[in-house]
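Per your request, structure below.
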């Protein structure tokens, strides 16, 4: 097959998936990308499973109207509850996220690792099974971060720092230095963790997922200028402004807070 284009739909409940989109556009720069942030229905991590499944299904249908050839659920919560179902329902490849617990455990044997994720992700079978498969459940210290993704969507950095303070202090008391960010939103604020402790070892699933996509989607498009369309369901002008700032990596590279 000689193909010179590839279009991928990337979804999240809000802006967290932009952290994965950043990696994806670096890895496959010639792919056209369509981003869908479901701000009107977020946070997924605090909804019930059936609600999230129906949101994800609707977004997959939306992507098909845009003629995407693959979909990425750039959201750990959506992946845990819906990826198996939408994979069965749609014939195009559908990728998902997984908290990077495996590399964290393998590279830090006998150490406690903290996994930060949404309440729904931590409740789901996929997460519980992952700990069991690795036979290292005792090594995993789960922290359910209700409310955090919404603060990140709003770029509310003052409140984010207040939110993180007790979590970071708890990690210090427990002498935990290895953290798995099990929600794509949290990757956007990785620097706040490192500002607190530059020795933290932080893992996320973004690179692993993107590498897997690159290996699976063969042939890749030839060099060309790619397009990026961003849809924010219920998004205001301000939400788009925040999205572009995250997208350009300004927040965690230059510490430019959005006012
Ligand atoms: N970004 C999402 C995740 O990776 C979920 C945030 C939310 O809507 O609760 O889990």
């Amino acid at each position: 097959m000689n193909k010179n284009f590839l279009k991928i739909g990337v979804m999240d409940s809000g802006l967290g998936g932009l952290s994965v989109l950043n990696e994806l556009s670096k890895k496959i720069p010639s792919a056209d990308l369509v981003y869908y942030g479901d701000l009107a229905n977020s946070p997924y991590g605090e909804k019930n499973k059936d609600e999230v499944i129906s949101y994800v299904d609707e977004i997959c249908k939306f992507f098909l109207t845009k003629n995407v050839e693959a979909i990425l659920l750039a959201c750990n919560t959506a992946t845990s509850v819906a990826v198996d179902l939408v994979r069965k329902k749609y014939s195009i490849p559908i990728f998902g996220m997984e908290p990077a617990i495996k590399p964290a455990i393998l590279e830090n044997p006998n150490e406690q690792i903290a996994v930060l994720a949404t309440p729904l992700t931590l409740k789901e079978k996929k997460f519980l099974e992952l700990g069991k498969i690795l036979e290292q459940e005792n090594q995993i210290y789960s922290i359910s971060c209700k409310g955090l993704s919404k603060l990140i969507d709003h770029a509310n950095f003052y409140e984010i720092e207040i939110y993180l303070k007790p979590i970071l202090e708890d990690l210090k008391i427990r002498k935990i230095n290895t953290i798995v960010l099990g929600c794509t939103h949290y990757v956007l604020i990785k620097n706040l963790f490192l500002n607190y402790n530059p020795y933290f070892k932080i893992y996320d699933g973004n690179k692993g997922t993107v590498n897997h996509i690159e290996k699976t989607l063969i042939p890749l498009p030839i060099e060309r200028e790619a397009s990026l369309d961003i849809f924010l369901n219920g998004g205001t002008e301000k939400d788009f402004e925040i999205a572009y700032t995250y997208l350009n990596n300004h927040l965690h590279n230059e510490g430019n807070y959005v006012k």
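Residues 250-259 have pLDDT under 50 and may be disordered.

Regards,
D.
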